[in-house]
Write a structure and sequence with these properties.
The chain has helices at 2-36, 39-52, 62-75, 79-110, 113-116, 124-144, 146-153, 159-180, 186-211, 224-248, 251-258, 264-297, 301-313, 315-327, 329-337, 347-371, 375-399, 401-430. It is an all-alpha fold and 431 residues long.
């Protein structure tokens, strides 16, 4: 228990440090971005990135399933199984990436991007290549994201944070260069994003395996039975991933469809301010997923219960920070971006409630996901996804972007409460 606590504590501290650096770099990057791209270009960019990043949820759940299998192998000291699961997972995700790329190329030939993105302010040529390059970048990042599961399995969850810092430094330098020499094009911005993201991920990957050569995957270790095992567990996570698209990642897309891309920027900037809060506590929760898996395999339910009690109480300081940020949102966004944004007074309130609700949900979800007992979560998440889509679509014509945030906040609180009840039930039957 002591070793597990020390690992969790170490990773939380390092993750917060790296996230703090990333936040600081983001504070410098966003003003450059909103001044580099026009209002419509910014809306198109974040919508494209958001929609195409859905591919991260369409991996038939291999990522989360692989994480649990790799963590179990490490807990049991079975490095042969670890390499086999890793090799099998790489083969499966590589195959998925190839299939998605073929479908993606075909789709680009038949979709009217101007109609799809609800704008005529960007010419079709620029939209086509912006979408193409963003899609290729997202697929490559998706493939390399399998390394996050390796880091998580060894409870080195701070390493993705280090990747984020390196990426932010590279991106900041490249956008500053483009701005300084007045090379203004959405395509240049997308290429800069792809280069910084891929180089940072690849660099840490090479560094990790140079230190752990015994963990290198190999095509001879691909195991069909391990693939079947991954699909069985991952199939459940796939349904969760699909519903996560609507609950967490569809806001900018829904706003673009319902209101237009010109409404995205102000919503997205406010959302990002609160997102800094949620990413800090997600960096705390991320080490706990693998720790919960380890504890569940070893039947250390007392540790799980104590940890959940501590993390539940942290919702109080999170709420205080959310209130402080919400009361000063206009000052923060003006200081950050240098722009006078059109922020409805109710928008920071609803996004603030969503941020608190997201903590409430994550507190229970990370244990449930770590245990693999996700059947009830799947049912609730499907209901939550449908509820988010319907409620936001109904509220936005009445409340504008506030309607999107309110729908997300209501659903996430209800989802979290259901997961709290399930967690209590699981531990009651184990203790």
């Amino acid at each position: 228990m002591s070793k597990r606590n020390n690992l969790v504590r170490k990773n939380i501290i390092l993750s917060v440090v790296f996230k703090g650096l990333s936040v600081g770099l983001s504070l410098l990057l966003l003003p450059l971005t909103v001044n580099y791209l026009s209002k419509v270009e910014y809306g198109i960019w974040v919508t494209l990135l958001g929609v195409l990043s859905w591919v991260n949820y369409l991996d038939i759940g291999i990522g989360p399933g692989l994480r649990n299998k790799l963590t179990e192998s490490v807990s049991l000291g079975d490095m042969k199984a670890f390499r086999s699961y890793l090799s099998s997972g790489i083969a499966m995700i590589g195959g998925i990436c190839f299939c998605i790329f073929i479908i993606f190329l075909g789709g680009l030939q038949i979709i009217n991007l101007n109609a799809f993105l609800n704008t005529n302010d960007i010419n079709g040529y620029l939209l086509y290549y912006s979408t193409l390059y963003t899609g290729i970048i997202v697929l490559l990042l998706f493939f390399f994201s399998i390394m996050d599961q390796v880091y998580n399995a060894f409870q080195k969850t701070a390493l993705p944070g280090m990747v984020g810092v390196i990426q932010s430094i590279l991106m900041l330098g490249m956008v500053y260069y483009l701005t300084y020499f007045n090379y203004r094009s959405m395509l240049y911005f997308i290429i800069a994003f792809g280069f910084s993201a891929l180089i940072s991920k690849l660099g840490i990957c090479i560094w990790f395996f140079s230190k752990h050569k015994q963990l290198l995957p190999h095509y001879n270790l691909i195991n069909s039975s391990h693939m079947k095992g991954l699909v069985t567990l991952s199939g459940k996570f796939m349904l969760l991933n699909l519903t996560c698209i609507f609950i967490y990642s569809s806001a900018n897309f829904m706003i673009t469809l319902r209101l237009g891309p010109e409404f995205v920027r102000d919503f997205d900037v406010v959302f990002r301010v609160f997102y800094f809060i949620s990413t800090l506590y997600f960096f705390m929760f991320n080490p706990l997923w693998s720790a919960y898996t380890d504890a569940y395999v070893k039947k250390d339910f007392i540790w799980i219960q104590k940890t959940l009690k501590r993390t539940t109480l942290l919702i109080i300081p999170v709420s205080v920070v959310v209130v402080v940020v919400g009361l000063n949102i206009n000052f923060i966004t003006k200081l950050w971006t240098g722009l006078e944004l059109d922020i409805p007074g109710s928008l920071p309130i609803t996004i603030g409630f969503y941020t608190i609700g997201l903590y409430w949900l994550a507190n229970w979800n990370y244990f449930i996901n770590g245990s693999g007992l996700v059947n009830i979560e799947i049912i609730v998440s499907v209901i939550a996804a449908v509820g988010t889509a319907i409620l936001s679509w109904m509220l936005m014509p009445i409340m504008g972007t506030t309607g999107m945030a309110l729908a997300m906040a209501v659903i996430v609180f209800l989802f979290g409460t259901a997961m709290c009840i399930q967690t209590i039930y699981i531990l009651k039957n184990k203790l």
